[in-house]
Amino acid sequence: MSKFLSLTVIFKGGSLNYGESTANVTALKRLSSKGKSYSYISRQALRYDIVRIMHEEFGMPLTPVGSDGKVVQFEKNAKINEFPEIDLFGYMKTEGQGSKGTIRKAIVRLSDAVSLEPWYNDVDYGNNMGLAARSNNLENMIFQTEIHKTFYTYTMTVDLDKVGVDDNYNIKLEKDEKIKRLNMLLDTIKILYRDIKGRREDLSPLFIIGGIYESGNPFFYNKVKLSFGRESVKLIVEPINETLEKTYHESKKVKDSTLIGYVNGIFANINEIILEENRKFSIERYFCVIKDELKKVY
């Protein structure tokens, strides 16, 4: 039976992904739902920062890139046994006009990270007075930047059976190398951060739910929502609890493979999630338990 790792994360950050500027206004990346605007971080931006941290913090070599004359792509000689990046996130290599190329699909799938509060047209007003005042010949430049500080959620799903396997080149890595690469990915998610517009924003989990399942369904994608009161922030637990009771493959229940990790003092009603207390952990312990579960898979 195939095995899949699926994690849904909540983190908090501010103004994390921008689109193109119009005149002197820099716009957030946003989407609309139920008549409201929500900021988001694209899955490409998340992938970029995951790969960057795997390289900068954990020493993963970056996959060399080249060009087929039209598009930038990974070098045709780059293989997954040397470069974990293309093992986890896939590749497409084209050779010659009209060629379909060589494709290996990503085995780590990411969703966009979407805000859990609407954006209410908050805009930061700025200028370059500090520099312009140094000279009598320079005019002050005015600019505006859309801003949004809120909680975000995204989901990551990993096809564990395909880690370290590339049929295009008949490559099958040893189990120890597979576990090493997945542990590096998990350690990156645990300390994820993003540099943007002179700021460093922490994207590490405040709440995480998921586990290792015999289905590739991202069970808690679009199920994690928040309610905001004067004194507290709460998870809307009904969709989570209903998902925990869902059955798949006839008799298996989602809750039987699900674990929760959370930071104390952020969400006021973790106890309302109907899951055994021995399946609720600190963030640090959560990742340790998931790593132990991965060893059992391989």
Note the quaternary state here: single chain
The radius of gyration over CA amounts to: 22 Å
Task: Using the alpha-carbon principal axes, give the shape.
Answer: globular
Question: Approximately what portion of the residues adopt beta-strand conformation?
Answer: 35-45%
Mean pLDDT: 93
* Number of helical regions: 6
- Helicity range: 10-25%
Uncertain stretches of 5 or more adjacent residues: none
Gap between N and C termini: 13 Å
Question: What's the count of strands?
Answer: 25
What structural category do the secondary elements indicate?
A: alpha+beta
Number of domains: 1
Main sheet: strands, sense, barrel: 9 strands, mixed
List keywords for this structure.
298 residues; four-stranded mixed β-sheet; alpha+beta
